[in-house]
Amino acid sequence: MSITVREALQLKELNECHLIAGRDGLDRQISYIDNMEVPNIIPWLRKDELLVTTAYAVKDDEAAVMEIIRALSDVGAAGIALKTKFLGNITQRIQELADELKIPVIVLPREMGFIELTTPLMKAIVDS
């Protein structure tokens, strides 16, 4: 059971989410959704996972965010969905790396709770 990142972004519940990098990775599969609460999430990343996070644990560390993007690519993950309240703007370097590695980077609206993202995604995955 899975859907593509492209299909996820077409869900009406996600119409306020914006893809800012990794457009060439839109056909990556989402089978799992996980949240990041620790700075070293890398050992727990997996293939076909969409990582959802505020990136609070790495908010002041561009290199750490880039390392997460690389690790997502290495494991064959679906991409990353970010709320930027703490992280701020996604730097050009992060966007360029995500484009190069074809890792979709989706920015969530500030007012969107994670449950508002994960519930329709999980329903679409189960329905698939």
Could you describe the 3D structure shown?
Strand 6, helix 3 and strand 7 form a beta-alpha-beta unit. The protein is built from four helices and seven strands, in the order E-H-E-E-E-E-H-E-H-E-H. The strands form two sheets. It has a five-stranded mixed sheet, sandwiched between helices. The mean pLDDT is 95. It is an alpha/beta fold and 128 residues long.
Give the number of helices. 4
User: What overall form do the CA principal axes indicate?
Assistant: globular
Uncertain spans, ≥5 residues at pLDDT below 50?
A: none
Radius of gyration: 13 Å
Proportion of residues in β-strands: 15-25%
Helix share of residues? Answer: 25-40%
Count of beta strands? 7
Mean pLDDT: 95
How would the blueprint of this fold be written?
Blueprint: E1 3-4, H1 5-9, E2 18-21, E3 29-30, E4 32-35, E5 49-53, H2 62-75, E6 79-83, H3 92-101, E7 105-108, H4 114-127
Which short descriptors sum up this protein?
about 130 residues, five-stranded mixed β-sheet, single chain, alpha/beta, two-stranded antiparallel sheet, 7 strands, 4 helices
